[in-house]
Amino acid sequence: MSRHRPYDDTKSLIAIILGVPALAGLVYFLLVAVNVAWRDYGLVVGVLVFVVGFVGLSYGSYRAVELVRSSGGR
């Protein structure tokens, strides 16, 4: 049974405040990278960059949520 510490909600809030803009920035960077790859190297490379970036962002988001949960946050 885990105890609820008073600063757990604050840590979760800080993680959300910092994490959402960071995720938005990474999505923007992914879209720029896909655009450049598609323009310079063709559709296949653009799709490959998108798939690799999407999987990377998904895994990174999952790990970030698990890190917040394991530290006692929401």
Q: Could you outline the blueprint of secondary structure elements for this entry?
A:
Layout: H1 8-41, H2 43-70
Helix pairs in contact: 1-2
Structure, briefly:
The protein is mostly helical. It is 84% helix and 0% strand. The protein starts with 7 loop residues before the first helix and ends with a helix.
Structural class: mainly alpha
Number of helices: 2
The whole-number mean of residue pLDDT values reads 85
How far apart the termini lie comes to 15 Å
Strand content: under 5%
- The gross shape turns out to be elongated
Radius of gyration based on Cα positions: 17 Å
State the total count of DSSP E strands.
0
What series of H and E elements makes up the topology? Answer: HH
Into which percent range does the helicity of residues fall?
over 70%
Biggest sheet statistics:
none
Poorly predicted ranges (pLDDT <50, ≥5 residues)? none
Protein architecture, described:
With 74 residues, the chain is mainly alpha-helical. It is built from 2 helices and no strands. The longest helix has 34 residues, at 8-41.
